[in-house]
TrEMBL record:
<feature type="domain" description="Phosphate acetyl/butaryl transferase">
    <location>
        <begin position="70"/>
        <end position="296"/>
    </location>
</feature>
<dbReference type="InterPro" id="IPR014079">
    <property type="entry name" value="Phosphate_butyryltransferase"/>
</dbReference>
<protein>
    <submittedName>
        <fullName>Phosphate butyryltransferase</fullName>
        <ecNumber>2.3.1.19</ecNumber>
    </submittedName>
</protein>
<keyword id="KW-0012">Acyltransferase</keyword>
<comment type="similarity">
    <text>Belongs to the phosphate acetyltransferase and butyryltransferase family.</text>
</comment>
<keyword id="KW-0808">Transferase</keyword>
<dbReference type="InterPro" id="IPR012147">
    <property type="entry name" value="P_Ac_Bu_trans"/>
</dbReference>
<dbReference type="GO" id="GO:0050182">
    <property type="term" value="F:phosphate butyryltransferase activity"/>
</dbReference>
<dbReference type="Pfam" id="PF01515">
    <property type="entry name" value="PTA_PTB"/>
</dbReference>
<dbReference type="InterPro" id="IPR050500">
    <property type="entry name" value="Phos_Acetyltrans/Butyryltrans"/>
</dbReference>
<dbReference type="InterPro" id="IPR002505">
    <property type="entry name" value="PTA_PTB"/>
</dbReference>
Length: 301
């Protein structure tokens, strides 16, 4: 298992990393910044309402600004903060973009700006890593937040994005399970058809750097016992590193089930842009935001 402690250590070994935080006037966001600075993960540009940012820091994290590695940049509106953050990354002043107290749609609009945004022509996708106590493993889930009902080629790009993140934390050949409700191809179930096609694309070198095999149901993707009982073979069954969900609804339910039923630790990053994007929920804890930061830093090309 690659733990978040391992990922934090790996991220702290990277040099000259700067994170641009958009609308940083948020207690949990600044808590993550404080923890990240204590691990020497990165330097930070805190963009937003300077008075509110300074007030939160003075009340909860005194000395953070004076310790070095953290500067503030004033922005009068959320849109202006998003623009400044995206431009900082686009112009090389920062290497990671992080969401603070701002609507996701507003930040992504600036990320996709044709003039100064972070578009690459690839699909942007959400890659979440869970440290799951029940199975004593870490496992990726993608895509639980960005793509609603991806088609085959989009799913291939979503796999590529997740594989790149897995490579970043040292998993050289991740095993990818395209999930469905059953383990056999059923023409009436598009998820099974796509899974079989993705498997063939991988075998023919169209999807590289990983092993793809599916369709697989969740149980036989992660459990050797379930795979053996159902007589499901292959190189991925029972040992998947990456779970590719068929739709955003399936991903969202799996994501929240792992958190609330499975008591899992999580970190997530948006991949496929020119730089990693930390796009955590405003409800996420400072610890989850720290995990996401570390995962993003390890994902830097």
């Amino acid at each position: 298992m690659v733990s978040f402690n391992d990922i934090i250590k790996q991220a702290s070994s990277k040099k000259e990393v700067t994170v641009a935080v958009v609308c940083a006037e948020d207690l949990e966001v600044l808590s993550a910044v404080q923890m990240a600075r204590s691990y020497e993960l990165a330097n930070f540009i805190l963009i937003g309402n300077e008075q509110k940012i300074d007030g939160i820091i003075a009340a909860h994290f005194p000395g953070l600004l004076e310790s070095g590695g953290v500067v503030t940049l004033s922005a009068d509106t959320q849109l202006q903060a998003a623009t400044k953050g995206v431009q900082a990354v686009s112009e090389g002043e920062a290497s990671v973009l992080m969401k603070g107290h701002i609507e996701t749609s507003l930040l992504l609009k600036e990320v996709l700006n044709k003039e100064y945004g972070l578009r690459t022509g690839s699909v942007l996708s959400h890659v979440a890593l869970f440290e799951v106590p029940a199975i004593e493993r870490s496992i990726f889930v993608t895509d639980a937040a960005m793509n609603i009902e991806p088609e085959l080629q989009q799913k291939a790009q979503i796999i590529n994005n997740a594989v790149a993140v897995a490579h970043g934390i040292g998993i050289s050949e991740p095993k990818v399970a395209p999930l469905a409700a059953v383990e056999v191809v059923n023409p009436a179930m598009q998820a099974t058809v796509d899974a079989a096609a993705l498997t063939q694309m991988n075998r023919r070198g169209q999807i590289a750097g990983c092993i793809v095999d599916g369709p697989l149901a969740l149980d036989n993707a992660i459990s050797h016992e379930a795979a053996h009982h159902k007589k499901v073979g292959g190189d991925v069954a029972g040992q998947a590193d990456i779970l590719l969900v068929p739709t955003i609804e399936a991903g969202n339910i799996l994501y929240k089930s792992l958190m609330y039923f499975g008591n899992s630790q999580v970190g997530a990053v948006i991949a496929g842009a020119k730089a990693p994007i930390v796009l955590t929920s405003r409800a996420d804890s400072g610890q989850s935001k720290l995990h996401s930061l570390a995962l993003a830093i390890c994902s830097i090309n």
